[in-house]
Structures
1.
Amino acid sequence: MSENNDKPTENAAANPANQGGKKTFTFSSASGELVTEVIADWMPLHIDDKPAADMFYTAYLVKEDGVQRPITFCINGGPGGSSVFLQFGCAGPRIIAFDEAGHEISGAKGLVDNPSHWLGFTDLVFIDAIGTGYSRLRTEKADGSDNTAGKKDNPYWAVKKDLASIAEFMRKFLTCHNRWQSPLFFAGESYGGYRAARLAKLFSREFQLVVNGLIIVSPIWQFRDASDSDYSTSQWVNQLPVYVGIAHKHALCRHVDADTPMSDVVAAAEQFAISDYALALVAGTMMDDDERHSIFTRVADMIGLEARFVIESEGRITFGDFARELKKHDHRITDLYDGSLTSGDAFPNRTNNEAAITEALFNSMNLYAAAIYQWQRSELGVATELEYEVLNQEAHKAWKNDEKEFDLFQLAESMDDFRAGVTTNTAMKVLVVHGRYDTVTPYFASKRLLHQSRLKPEARARVTQKLYEGGHMFYSWHEQRRLFCEDVKALIQSF
């Protein structure tokens, strides 16, 4: 990678202390050297035609092909997560250092070249939703009154307004850079996958954006599947094949030999999950105790837990409990986001799961924070007094459903919009991807829901599913990142 200094960008943010950056770099790729303009700056967003917020972004624009070159907008999830994960873990030309199997490299804080970046086939724009990264509300409302009090009332921390803000940013970016004729793609991870599924319909229906393809990474489709309720079934069915895969990875499945192919083990688990297991969950005590306990004992053998624990839990094992229980005799916790990884349990005598959750969620945050500060400030010359919000827990907790018609009986879901978007946009293609060992957004939810979606064969043929080794951020595994890159390339170059 080489670089040339360019002038800083004209600052779009209202705060004069915020100064964007712009430089030209040369990145290597399989197709040759790519002279790339990298821009990091703020884009003003409006409410009632008045500036209301400034959305921060980082754009990688290769200086060739002009408007004919594809452009992909990328966003992460949370809600409350910035775009550092896709930018510095997956698609960008510079990433944080992981070993071959996705483990953090001790003491490594710098960025390394990414041989599996996407710039060889698409320009990239990484978006930080309002309240994440350096994206903020304006400090004054349109009427001049203070806008900093009551952050929990942030209008952008809501399902519908969030989607509209993303589309507003995209429209303005395409206009500013004269890219309306470029093939257009959108990539979203986790809650960003929910965003992508919703926008499948809304891009054209409400925002006049013609999107060629969606890349939906480790998505959550409907929030009822994130519940630990004893009275629903889908979330437990979704989790079971993932638990089985993790247990088999650690050679803890008792119902198969350790050398049984993973594909065979998981295929059997999927069939069991939608048959005997689902029936036992739905029936409850309407099923004979002996039969129900027999099914739950089989579950225990499949997922490597004690039969008594599974029976007492009525077959409903939360991902936090699974993380603590699977390797508790070794005082190890399996990672919620990648169950193939483990860490020491600092509190093996305690019964709550907080240690497991904290370890899984925050262990790599500092690495990503160091990466963004190095890249934005040291390399691109971004100047701001703001702290970069890698993961804004306040936004996550304050997120609202601003679409609901009733206070009861309405949880945010995306499948209807996805189904409508794929059906009506007959040129759009979709790539849905997961990591096998992710317990937070289990792959089987996508597989099951897509089979339930009633998409017509023509529409279903335009939706491709891929399952990789690894977890929620499977791309931290070197080989899986390469495979994912090839699959994204195939999608984009199919147009």
2.
Amino acid sequence: MRKEIEIDGCIEIPPEMTMDEFSNIFLMFIESKGWSFGGGFSEIIDDHYINPDGSKGEHVLE
């Protein structure tokens, strides 16, 4: 039997932490438990998604 949990939320991290640092720590935690993660990460600063080029994207409520 396979059981999955879908997560829909935000994690607040220190402003100096990069997306790569966070995702590495998160994935190491998941893998240390023998679990797997399928999905993606979105960076949000001041209520706006951050585009891959570092520019501000859409507001999170749009």
3.
Amino acid sequence: MLLRTIKPTRYFSDELLSHYRQQTDPAADAIIEQVAAAGGPAGVRTFLQQRTEGKIPLKEVPECRRFVREEGRLPDWADPKLMASGIRLFQRHRDTITLLLGCLSLPYAYLAADGVQVLALSKRMQNDTRQRLEETGAFVFGITEAEAWQGKYPTAIERILNVRLIHAVVRWFCQHSNRWNPAWGEPVNQEDMAGTNLTFSYIIIQGLRKNGIEPDEKEAEAYLHFWKVVGYLSGVPEDLLPENLREAYVLGQSIARRLFRPSPEGQQLTQALLRALEDTVPEGLKTLPAAQMRFLLGDEYADQLALPAVPLEKRLVRLLPMRIFFRP
């Protein structure tokens, strides 16, 4: 119903998306090249460890000061009132969105057969699944607090820029690996980043609806605007940041048509995710994560990820709350 009331202004052509599949993040990449020139692969690994731990603020890292100064500013079009409204929507449905992050957003991302190769090569999602999930949760919960956007240099911006640099490190290692296939596009490219942004924004709105929660049009648009700002700070070009829900739908459909297909890597990552989630629920409900995923994704996408068909009625799945471990 919402989609009928909002007209798109862009349709995100294959030509546009193919172009951005070859684009990375020059500002972040330049820092990693500088680190690599000084310390080689070992230096890059040390930098990654420091960024993962996050104990040293970026503005105290010599190589990052200019990056923070130039990239850590809100865009002129950012609307503080809309952002605050988007944050309130998140906080009001925090528990449901927690469920959606694990059972919808992540497996939805694994459907992109080329983009998922980055995660497969890094092995972290398979070998350290719970830690990786906790890091994702800490990021999302850390930027969806109103206080995180206050002050001269908000902590939310620090978190976003930090993740942006971690992506650049992962990209550097993939580019210097003889296992990376150029047919996949650039590692952590801008088409994949746009898709990732959708999994946290528009896909969450869709998941809320599927769970019987229907945000009104203004709330949903505000939530999309919040993540548009996050996407901008993450280095995603404005060409790939939807203006409204209809554009988000069109972009999502275009990316899905281009990239979604069964892949061994996507299926393996889904199985690793399932095992981690199954460890968080009571013994008698071990099949619940798979049932939730299939309910939220739909059978077509669930089959692409080789999710088991669980004999649990959809109406029952919808009523069962599951608080997984996306807690700061």
